[in-house]
Amino acid sequence: MPFKTLDDVSDLNGKTAVVRVDFNVPVEDGRITDDTRLRVALPTIRKLLEKGATVALLAHFDRPKGKVVPEMSLAFVAPALEALLGQEVAFADTLDARYSGDARVVLYENVRFHPGEETNDAGFAKQLAALGDIYVNDAFSAAHRAHASTEAVARLIPAYAGESMRRELTALDAALGNPQRPTLGIVGGSKVSTKLDLLKNLVGKLDALAIGGGMANTFLYAQGHDVGGSLCEKDLKDTAIEILREADTKGCHIMLPLDVVVAQEFKANAPHRTQPLSAPLSADDKIFDAGPLTVEALTNVMAGSKTLIWNGPLGVFELPPFDAATVAAAKFAAQQTKSGKLVAVAGGGDTVAALNHAGVADDMTFVSTAGGAFLEWMEGKVLPGVAALEQ
Ligand code: ADP
Ligand code: MG
């Protein structure tokens, strides 16, 4: 890895580590409904404490847009973190001065209360850097933004990747940066338009790419197939053809559905039929899932692949039985991963939900919950927060 990790720091006695974390947790009626993001930060906090450091946590919450919005204070997170860590976590309501109390862990107020955060302001970054002696970024999910607490501050004091950042970058590198070949990608979801950059990047890198979900319809349409009343971006016909041509040039084998599951109503257990692509569709027919022949073709290629990168479900997985292709592919990927034959990395909001639904999220090599940062990384973009660590 081209950046320093916590293994590169030895003694931090008497020093303070400024640590950027992602504590933008979901909250309902003042209660944290999912504390995953707090748990993810624990290894870094513990490791720094073991090395003797005081830990100064920086985070954002919601979108106060550079103003103090009391309802968006991070104060409520301190006791929750304290309970998970089993150690005092103080809260500092100002970023203007170093915390001077006795606690070894302190959480500072929402960095986005300051206008300099989102503008990556040099003066605000200096203020953040003055809160400690070294900087640690453990928030991969915020690394696609060049903000003062993710980018500029990393250039002012010695910067390191935290444990969860390291884990995520290592997994992503194994999936797309430096993967074992053959490599297979699965891209699904609803629309081509939201994943153009991603498709373009992947066809240049992977040995095979399966395209599924609603976006496959646009490709099928571009190839001259009838897609009935399915979700289809007809205006992207030329773009789809371009992507297929690019794949051909780059030697990426594209797999599109061979058979489809068709229904007329968008609801669970709607009357449906499975048919080959060549069979006719009426204007009311909508393709909601890939059929068993498609799944078989996909799992055959997966069986011969060493690496899988997956974003986007193969069908409308929220509505059974249109979850069948997604669940079958997920289970096969899990089995291959468990038997050591496959490195499987997946990410994306609905993809994570689909893998959980299939009951196999824990069996993948790595599942990214980083959302926007994961997608931008799949698009081959430079993430400012990561680049700042690599200097
Ligand atoms: P992610 O959040 O993992 O990046 P997307 O948001 O791109 O994934 O896509 C997920 C959505 O795509 C799901 O809500 C799913 O219902 C929808 N989808 C999948 N296949 C189809 C289809 N054939 N027709 C319409 N929508 C589909
Ligand atoms: Mg989504």
Output the keywords.
391 residues; alpha/beta; Rossmann fold; 2 domains; six-stranded parallel beta sheet; 17 strands
Give the domain tally. Answer: 2
**Total beta strand runs:** 17
CATH architectural designation of the largest domain: 3-Layer(aba) Sandwich
Give Rg in angstroms: 23 Å
CATH superfamily of the largest domain: Phosphoglycerate kinase, N-terminal domain
Ligands and ions found: adenosine-5'-diphosphate, magnesium ion
How far is the N terminus from the C terminus?
A: 12 Å
The rough form would be described as: elongated
Question: What CATH first level of the largest domain would be assigned?
Answer: Alpha Beta
Q: Return residue spans where pLDDT drops below 50 for at least 5 consecutive residues.
A: none
How would you summarize the topology of this molecule?
Layout: E1 16-20, E2 27-28, E3 31-32, H1 36-50, E4 54-58, H2 77-85, E5 89-92, E6 105-108, H3 115-118, H4 122-129, E7 134-137, E8 159-161, H5 163-177, E9 183-187, H6 196-203, E10 208-211, H7 213-222, H8 237-250, E11 253-255, E12 259-263, E13 272-276, E14 286-290, H9 292-303, E15 307-311, H10 324-338, E16 343-347, H11 349-358, E17 366-368, H12 372-378, H13 384-390
Parallel strand pairs: 1-4, 1-7, 4-6, 5-6, 7-8, 9-10, 9-15, 10-11, 15-16, 16-17
Antiparallel strand pairs: 2-3, 12-13, 12-14
Helix pairs in contact: 1-2, 7-8, 9-10, 10-11
Please provide a written account of the structure.
The chain is α/β, with parallel strands linked by helices and 391 residues long. The protein folds into 2 domains: 158 residues, Rossmann fold (3-Layer(aba) Sandwich); 209 residues, Phosphoglycerate kinase, N-terminal domain (Rossmann fold, 3-Layer(aba) Sandwich), CATH 3.40.50. It contains 13 helices and 17 strands. Helix 7 crosses helix 8. The strands form 4 sheets. The chain has a 6-stranded parallel sheet with strand order 5-6-4-1-7-8, with helices on both faces. Strands 11-10-9-15-16-17 form a 6-stranded parallel sheet, with helices on both faces. The protein has a 3-stranded antiparallel sheet with strand order 13-12-14. The chain is 34% helix and 18% strand.
